[in-house]
Structures
1.
Amino acid sequence: VEKSGNSHGTGTSAFTHMIPGDHAYAVYRTATERRTTLHDFLKAGIDAGQRVAYLSGELPDESEEWLCGDDAVMHRCVGSGQLLLVGAGGPVHRGPSGEPCVDPGRTLQCLQLMADDAMTDGYPALRLAADGTYLTQGLDPARVVPFERGFTSLIEANRMLALCLYADVALPAAIPGILAAGHHGAPARAGTYSAAGLRITPTSSPPGIRLAGELDRTHLPAFVEALAELAQSSGTILLDMRSLTFIDVAAVTAIADTAKKLDEGRQVVLDSPPSMAGRILAKCWQGIPLPRLAIAADRSRPGLLGTTWTAAMGVASLGTGLPA
Amino acid sequence: MTTSLAEPTCSSTLLHEAMFYSDPSEFVAGTVPFIREGLVAGEPALVALMPHKIELLREALGSDASEVTFVDMVGLGGNPACIIPAWRAFCAANDGRYARLRGIGEPIWAARSPVEILEAQLHEQLLNVAFAPGPELLLRCPYDTANLPEDLIAEARRSHPVLAAGGTARHSADFDGARPAVAAFNADLGEPPANAHRLEFRGESGLAAVRQMVGAHAVQAGLDPHRAADLRLAVNELVANSVAYGGGSGSLAVWREARRLVVEVRDGGWIPDVLAGRREPSPDSLTGRGLWLVNQICELVQLRSSRNGTVVRVHTTVAA
């Protein structure tokens, strides 16, 4: 099972194998445990080419010293901006630009900005580690769960995954239960496919699936099956790719093939596909129109939704939108 | 040797000429009349050259230049495997409308790196077998004898059936049909260096580890996120091909060579089509897009395949 909500196992592999859309927490007992968990979690993101960030109350230099140690690649990533060390430098919460960020809503706004920046800078995903003890300090324990749930919604709506680290010593007895409620960890929904870095979850109205993680040949049979099932439904087919960070040529081909076979008036809509989807379409369907395939870049702006793939030298033009 | 597959043969619709020149005036003399002749006959012309040569030709052509399509060869042929698709597309676009087309393409110049030149030479050989029936293409390839070493000129004599110099054309005695194209495609690129980082992969479950290793090296090499993403995608497709068609397993090797990051995927499979990755994918096919995409998004790709196996190397320039 991919979803890691609890932290009481040993080892950190559960966290390095998290996929976009995941929101987990870890409770550490020792400084070594904290460092290893955090380092391995961030390093896995660096290797995957993701923007990685650590949010804490520490000074960035301080974080870099204990976290990166003698790992030259990690230090270089601080220099290149792939690894962000976001510290407030004091007891007051501050956002990435140093603005005060004292309330949970403000913190979430800052995180949204960080996710947007990661996409703008060309990273496939934002992998976030947060010092939960610091970010929730002073919060009434009753507000921790709403905060973490808001965080979960944010993660699910972006190409983002997060691990919240809580110090064992700072936890009142009731907190572990509260943490479990605020993070993923519930059993997967019926119909969910989850294997080796990809999760496919059915969605409705319009009928579709939500894809999280990396979609390659390993998952092709399951993906093709899901597409075939959706083709049997009616109306628009929505592929929610907001948490998908990789898609290969075979999967894009399967989507194009599904779209091509749809009846007049129907279409496949890709909601926020990862960058390589556009790259593959531009290079492999150059000059080949796919009128039943649309790309929706921003759900929150329905007027601009639905960019139909016209394949005029790889440039997509505006077309019809998602049904309201 | 017996084989059930048809050996490639020279395309009857291609007239492939090497044109030797040693200074700008010889270059103009070997290209301008050739283009004008075509314009008079109403034949479309496509010219792929380095930017400064395009300027030279535009100037010499005067108002006729507007009748010619110019393409920057540095951009088009950075990866020489992308040049044949451009000529094929030129032919396809004019199929049925014109009986004959003209082209000028200079894929080899002195400043190119040895690996690029090797790939440009393979490209010149493959051109001979790259065209299906369609309009006739008169393709003239300028070679700068003043700046290119003699072995490159000798190879041009082998890869072009017709040689043009000083306003005359003659058949090349060294041209040997389609066989050298196949031999060049079958050639052995040698082993990766001993210090290469290696990963054996088996089955589709190996894909994630491959992407992770490539991603880690891309980050170490300082590639920006877009190029790192392209490299991960390209290598993913190569490994997926190995898993599907190359015997299910293979090996990945990554190393630095001068200012390039080289990623090699090697398997025991055989790709009989010497034009693999250079044929535009058919819209309805469910397969066959991987190698095409790799050629389209990578800076330089080397593909060799024979009965001994397949090797693909992807080269990416990194900061010093």
2.
Amino acid sequence: VRKALETYDRLLDFDEWATHDLLTFCAPLTDEQLDRRFDIGHQTIRDTWIHLVWNIDFWISLMTGGAPLEEPDWRGISIADLMTRYNESFASFAALTRKIRDEHRLDDVFLDHWQVKKSMGGTILQVIIHASEHRMEITHMLIRLGLENVPEVDLGARDYELLNC
Amino acid sequence: MQIEPHHHIRNADGFPTPYPRTIYHSPSTLYSPRKEGESMDVYDRLLQYDEWATHELFAASSDLLDEQLDREFDIGHRTVRATFDHLITVIQGWMIEMGGQPGGSPPGGDSSLAALRVRFDGAHEAFSVYVRSLRDTDRLEDRFADDYGGSITQIGAALHVLLHNVEHRSEILHLLQRLKIPDVPEIDLALWEIQRIEATETTSR
């Protein structure tokens, strides 16, 4: 149990740190940059952020017995407002993760929106890895916008920072 | 429910869309009790998912021509082949840093996709064995010196490798999309878990 405790805490810490780092980098972007279309994933930086933040609430709802949530219409939402919404969603997700872990319910199974079985532990990891995939998508769009010093937000860098800085 | 391979939904432009949202079920049917023996450690989940997702991408790339494997784009490691090679090299490199023995042939050899897959399998197997040995001997919190003169934990390095793979698989997916390859797979952990649970139940019947 101790190993699992530390691992989930680490993953949550990293996920929040990496998302904050990248959201902060996006704060000065113009609306044109946030909405410029690319030929990958969710196509714009703003839409990718909306999808990433919404996805957290989507899985929280299913894991707690709620209905599947519709993807919201947040057209034009600012990065500052996304940060606020992310902080609220992530705080709920982190609290739920730690509760499930502490109650030894990581292997409990629920039916998702397709009525397919999912485990709590697997779904927690799904949310964290899903965020990592879409942060990479945003990183690529930032590079293709020609921006310099796009942050590298990998877990090794976070561990190094925690231990050495 | 029968899950089709790569069963993502696509919009008119061919990009994956969020899951369908029309299915709703009563909260009272949501939970089923855990069965004895179902427990799965977080590392086993991550390692098995990592292998599955990377294999899915190798399969999706298997029909690419050399020209497609080596076509340069303006992100990351530029080409599909170089990104696969980097992903494997990083697993092997971190194994050395962590004090383990890297599996698979060393970088710089045959770079055909088939050879890269064999090399990945060797590297991933050695990495999986090593991470499980760290877990089973309570050494995940041990520290080692890194290239920058600081220290890093074994657990930090192990998770870094696994998430590094996530990032570069995401990069390969983007390259495949930009190559306009049809049916680029969706490789979420949730999809792997559907297959895992179904396989577990089939076995236990």
